[in-house]
Amino acid sequence: MTQTTRRTFLAAGAAAFTHAVIARAAYAQAAPATAGPVDPALIDDLVAANRILVDQGVVDGYGHVSVRHPADPQHYLMSRSIAPELVTAADIMEYDLDSTAVDARGRTSYLERFIHGEIYRARPDVKAIVHNHSPSVIPFGVSTAPLRPLYHMSAFLGGGVPVFDIKAAAGGATDMLVRNAALGRALATTLGARPVALMRGHGAVVVGPNIQLTVFRSVYTEMNARLQAQAMALGGPVTYLDDEEARLAGGSVGGTVVRPWELWRKKALAR
Amino acid sequence: MTQTTRRTFLAAGAAAFTHAVIARAAYAQAAPATAGPVDPALIDDLVAANRILVDQGVVDGYGHVSVRHPADPQHYLMSRSIAPELVTAADIMEYDLDSTAVDARGRTSYLERFIHGEIYRARPDVKAIVHNHSPSVIPFGVSTAPLRPLYHMSAFLGGGVPVFDIKAAAGGATDMLVRNAALGRALATTLGARPVALMRGHGAVVVGPNIQLTVFRSVYTEMNARLQAQAMALGGPVTYLDDEEARLAGGSVGGTVVRPWELWRKKALAR
Amino acid sequence: MTQTTRRTFLAAGAAAFTHAVIARAAYAQAAPATAGPVDPALIDDLVAANRILVDQGVVDGYGHVSVRHPADPQHYLMSRSIAPELVTAADIMEYDLDSTAVDARGRTSYLERFIHGEIYRARPDVKAIVHNHSPSVIPFGVSTAPLRPLYHMSAFLGGGVPVFDIKAAAGGATDMLVRNAALGRALATTLGARPVALMRGHGAVVVGPNIQLTVFRSVYTEMNARLQAQAMALGGPVTYLDDEEARLAGGSVGGTVVRPWELWRKKALAR
Amino acid sequence: MTQTTRRTFLAAGAAAFTHAVIARAAYAQAAPATAGPVDPALIDDLVAANRILVDQGVVDGYGHVSVRHPADPQHYLMSRSIAPELVTAADIMEYDLDSTAVDARGRTSYLERFIHGEIYRARPDVKAIVHNHSPSVIPFGVSTAPLRPLYHMSAFLGGGVPVFDIKAAAGGATDMLVRNAALGRALATTLGARPVALMRGHGAVVVGPNIQLTVFRSVYTEMNARLQAQAMALGGPVTYLDDEEARLAGGSVGGTVVRPWELWRKKALAR
After folding, report:
1. pLDDT digits over D105-115, tens only?
2. Is B155 on the interface with A (CB under 8 A)?
């Protein structure tokens, strides 16, 4: 991905922002009705996802993961505002795509839940979303060095990883938080059709067609960032997967996600 | 922060030192009276803080953390001289701002307790202090590269991180330890109104309005140093939070400290 | 190893590939007969090897290790397709050198089992094989910097570490997986008589005369890669073992493998 | 320490070697008599030291630590040849300074025990010795970058860290192991009066006036190497402790070793 491409992403984000401010003002914030009960196995997967992301070093006391409601694509499920490591089934709340809680009962929501609502709205193919401060990824969000797929495990990074600059999207300095629908929409625009977007001075957002692959992509985005930085430090040119390799490997490796997931879930839920 | 700013900090420290030597000579070292009992929950927080700093890799067998006495701003509480990981409630001692123990009963005090006494004296807003040898931070204390806020979690670093050079403060070679009130006062002068100061060839001091935020700042100063070094190693320019972003994000993120604190405390006290 | 040497390895691999495609087409894939029962101690070693490689950070949820069948050099033993950390004795399957399972009973095989079959076929001296995505090794597989022996523990790297480029072997883009006998044969050709070959954009393969030494080499290839990157980052020339030192040290250190193996196995099987 | 200084150390080592070969030939290797029983608390400290070095990442499956016999300076105590993590009191053996075991009873000795015997012979002040493959230290042994004291905790490195090149000492390629008295004597000559010497392509040797300080120095040599590499990577000049600071800090910090030792020993023996 060239710097030009990065600027294109950012410009698109800024344009979307203006549009979104107007569009979002029409939405009401009243508590929506539930989309109904969810298979406990999916809730368990969501709880496991929180703990797996901790175990794998992708989130610390911050970060969140959601799944789209299986019965209603206009709703999603996510923990109340606590550290991912502490999440249990009882902490899972339901939101509509305005990121308004169905039944808050005094529970606090993540300030940045709009990341989830607005990406689910913009991307019907997305069924799960992770927002993290993945440590090896942060440096790439503040550098001119693009994140690129170094090996087959992170082949999904092929095609480029856009960087969301909240200052460009908001038209000035912010507290760096995606704290409303307009900013969430701008981030979704930067993400476009990609699985991963970096957030300058903040972290990343990772999406996928199910929770397993989304967690997998979060883990291997972190790993790729670490390995890419090491490869760059060796000096000399680095050979990345070419576009066709990335496309082919992304498909093949994506099909093996059950292997690490089985391991990760077992360890996460055993605690 | 420019190098010029660093020199200004150091010059201020050296000037303060001379003043402090004279001023401190008037203080007596007799055992002071207690300021009275403290809420056991605060003691638990202080014990937890010691262990959290270990868990998060901010301290090893060395380092210390204190809180100002809630009933008397002229007193503070800190463990006797043992490794932070071993601290229990029974090890917490009370000191006045001359860093004289109220009731030593043969217990050894940290040699560098003057860091705490003198900063509490100079900074009425400070309610908790951490002194550490935070590993990723040490290299920034001996380098000309200034530590700067890379992301919102370390926004409190905005405005510059002064570096205390004990040689400049003492006017010559020392054993690097802040082992008396004069050196503590010089360090407090270098710290000025900031939340963090680096100590050349030694470590860092971190302060805050309560123990939770002070521990939080210690953890994310370490993390920022690690991530900044990685970002710099990628080559090319690094985009830091600008001053306004740092100010805004510092406020917002500071308000979320309960989230990691709940996690950290639970794990620390479960051991 | 010079870059010229690397190109020679790759050219050899590409040539071998064409030959292999033709040769392999003649092999049948029918279920072969078992070579008979195996000493349970060897199975325990193979299970331990899987866990040791996890403990030592050489494999994560992916990677596999095999041993040649002690009673029939035309067969080998390897786990069904699960994460190495979960492998138990019941998961070990038997394969012939076409990498066809003797008794699959519905169990899934690793897609890349051809790495094992074809190397066993090409290298009668090899009794155990590890395929991994060893994190510190990956960067050397995509860099022009050759992996070289930095200290006596990795002296077996003396003589050069070839890099397998699957694109050159396949004559175009692939999904990066050694998913058939032809690619396995090309990899075996690149490996030649060496103990280790890197796989560009993928990982590495490590072989040896027994499972202990093969695990040992996997561990210290990872360690050497980490230390070499650090030494290179210090700037200035790096002194590697010379050829004679590598030869002598490789022999001596290889004779001490029982020492770490005893430790590693005890810890791995205690879980 | 300049490169010139390093060469001086090496030249001294080479000269000593020739002398040592002749001198050592006169020693007999018959089993010596015991110097008598040892306080179990010292044995416990030696066992703890083995485990502490593992816990602190200074040794892996290799490395060894010894203490001089308290009743006879011509004898020392060290484990039989097993991984440090597995050492118990029953594994401790007694050697004379020729590194001949008093009562082997079939137990295997470390091949490189001559490191210990010859340093004890050359350095009456030394009461404990660690030989390790300390990971962050290895790169400095193969680089032209000298290891220097970055902070007060590693002030004992002040005055320079010599590098032992076994090729220069032996006059040609070896298997890198200090496998006889002549090589041990050459290493002792390179070490001179210093607390630490690096061994090119191998590891390091660390000595001290007691086991606590020797373990402490091993831990903080590793830490200093890690931090120094990070500081160097930041670019620009690095400020090390000056000679007087190193001397003063070395004395002061050395006096605090009981603090981490109490922690380390407690954790090591609790396993």
Report:
1. 999 999 999 99
2. yes
Residues C114, C180 contacting (CB under 8 angstroms) = yes
Per-residue DSSP letter, D144: S
pLDDT at residue B21, rounded to an integer? 41
- Helices and strands per DSSP (H, E), number in chain B: 9, 7
Decide: A264 and A56 in contact? Cβ < 8 Å. Answer: yes
Bridge partner residues of B77 (DSSP): B67, B94
pLDDT of residue D30: 73
**Nearest alpha-carbon partner for B215 in B130, B110, B92, B127:** B130
Q: Select the residue of D223, D236, D245 nearest B176 (Cβ to Cβ).
A: D245
Pairing of strands C196-199, B64-68: unpaired
| Tens digit of each residue's pLDDT (9 = 90 or more) over B151-194 | 999 999 999 999 999 999 999 999 999 999 999 999 999 999 99
For residues A196 and D145, give the distance between their C-alpha atoms in angstroms, rounded to a whole number. 40
> At C129, phi and psi to the nearest 5?
-140, 135
Q: Measure in Å the smallest separation between the Cα of C78 and chain A Cα atoms.
A: 16
Which runs of E-coded beta strand occur in D176-270? 196-199, 203-208
User: How far apart, in Å, are the Cα atoms of D146 and each of C228, C254, D224, D232?
Assistant: 16, 30, 12, 11
Spatial distance between the Cα atoms of B12 and C77, rounded to a whole number of angstroms: 71
| Distance between CA atoms of residues D135 and D219, nearest Å | 11
The reply to whether D235 touches chain B by the CB within 8 Å rule is yes
Q: Is B63 on the interface with D (CB under 8 A)?
A: no
Above pLDDT 90, what percent of chain A?
Answer: 87
pLDDT of residue A18 exceeding 90 = no
Pairwise CA distance, residues A204 & A214, whole Å: 12
**What SS3 class is residue D216?**
helix
State the virtual CA torsion across C147, C148, C154, C156 in degrees, nearest 10: 100
* Helix residue ranges per DSSP H, chain B: 3-24, 40-55, 114-122, 138-141, 166-170, 181-191, 211-233, 243-254, 258-269
Q: Are C26 and C173 in contact, with CB atoms under 8 Å apart?
A: no
Paired residues of D206 in beta bridges: D130, D196
Within C76-170, where are the H helices?
Answer: 114-122, 138-141, 166-170
For residues D44 and D46, give the distance between their C-alpha atoms in angstroms, rounded to a whole number. Answer: 5
- Mutant choice from B148, B226, B241 vs A, greatest count of A C-beta within 10 A: B241
ipTM: 0.89
Alpha carbon distance B231, B223 (integer Å):
12
Task: Check if D112 is active-site.
Answer: yes
Q: Is A171 on the interface with B (CB under 8 A)?
A: no
CA-to-CA separations, C34 to A139, B87, C24, in angstroms, rounded: 53, 61, 22
- DSSP tag of D198: E
pLDDT band at B30 (very low <50, low <70, confident <90, very high): confident
C-alpha C46/C-alpha C67 separation (Å) is 7
- Judged by CB atoms closer than 8 Å, whether chains meet at D61 and C260 is answered as yes
Please calculate the CA angle A257-A262-A263 and round it to the nearest 5 degrees. Answer: 105
| Average pLDDT, integer, range C139-164 | 98
Q: What would the 3-class secondary structure string for chain A be? A: CCHHHHHHHHHHHHHHHHHHHHHHCCCCCCCCCCCCCCCHHHHHHHHHHHHHHHHCCCCCCCCEEEEECCCCCCEEEEECCCCHHHCCHHHEEEEECCCCECCCCCCCCCCCCHHHHHHHHHCCCCCEEEEECCCCCHHHHCECCCCCCCCHHHHHHCCCCCEECHHHHHCCCCCCCCCCHHHHHHHHHHHCCCCEEEECCCEEEEEECCHHHHHHHHHHHHHHHHHHHHHHHCCCCECCCCHHHHHHHHHHHHCCCHHHHHHHHHHHHCC
Angle at C68 between CA C67 and CA C74, to 5 degrees: 150
**Contact indicator for C78, C66 with CB cutoff of 8 Å:** yes
